[in-house]
Amino acid sequence: MTIWWRRHRNWLTPALLLAPGLFLFLVVIIWSSLETFWISFFDWDGMGVKTWVGLANYRELLDDPQFYVSLKNNLIWLLMFLLAPPAGLAIAFLVNQKIAGMRVMKSLFFMPLVLATVTVGVIFTWFYDPTFGLLALLFRAFGAEAPALLSNEHLVTFAVVASALWPQIAFCMVLFLAGLNNLDEELIGAGRVDGARGLAMLWHVVLPQLTQVAFIAVAITIVGALRSFDAISVMTAGGPFGSSTTLAYQMYEQSLFSYRFGYGAAIATILFLIMAVFIAWYLRGLIRAEKGA
Q1: Main location per UniProt (predicted)?
Q2: Measured between alpha carbons, how far is 184 from 277 in angstroms, rounded to an integer?
Q3: What is the reported pTM?
């Protein structure tokens, strides 16, 4: 046994180390995804007998106005969340300067990242309160009345996304700070010798070295936008009148509150397919970047 182990330990050791994670991935991710897809073909309340309905859940979904509201809100989340990488990059450049007191500034910008999403949601719910919130105080200082953002079906999604954008910008800032701390000093020195200064140095020397970090920041930001749930659950519970619901929250609501697990599974499947398209694009870009390197 000892001789056999010595002969094969080059592949056995990493295989044994990877086995627990691989098992969890297969059970929690792959098996759960396949089970969700299978449940989407049934009418099921989560406890009783499943009734086969074929594609009926998907046909109902395509005729459901709430589905298109959720899809539109997911698009709003995606477009607004794409502001996080450039904002995080700008803040990273700011706090990376060697100026007195910048460590304190860096800590303040980092603070939202260590807060739970639920905490951020509660903070912004108080902030948006039209009677005693900070927003109301600011409006009163100028003699105006604060809008009830979380009660306005046309503005509520933008208000919720703004709250979720706060920690996302902090996350992108941390990623870009790591990238800035790993810049090639020789390339920067060569750029200075060639006369690169200011924007020329930024565009031709610094930003090309941050391509990989930017790609990761954009990818994680897009995934975060598509699976948006926590902030909605805390701040609006999908209201008013379902106007702030996203696909993830609609799936949760249909499954756990309406006891329509088959219909919720159909929504989850559609969301999975949307994310699968993005993941395919992400992997394609990653492979191209690796070949280019």
Answers
A1: membrane
A2: 34
A3: 0.88
pLDDT band at 1 (very low <50, low <70, confident <90, very high): low
- Cβ distance 225 to 172 under 8 Å? no
pLDDT level of residue 262 (50, 70, 90 thresholds): very high
Helix 211-226 and helix 156-180, axial crossing angle in degrees, nearest 10: 150
Alpha carbon 206 to its chain's center: 26
With 80 as the cut, is the pLDDT of residue 177 above it?
A: yes
Number of residues that make up the chain:
293
Largest CA distance in the chain: 84
Spatial separation of the C-alpha atoms in residues 187 and 253, rounded to whole Å: 53
CA dihedral (68, 46, 269, 32) positive or negative? positive
Q: What mean pLDDT do residues 145-165 have?
A: 93
pLDDT, tens digit (0-9, with 9 covering 90-100), for 28-47: 888 988 999 999 999 999 88
Ordered structural domains, the chain, with CATH? 64-259 (1.10.3720.10)
Residue type, 22: L
Q: How many CB atoms lie within 10 A of CB 142?
A: 6
Burial of 21 (0-12, 13-18, 19+ CB in 10 A): exposed
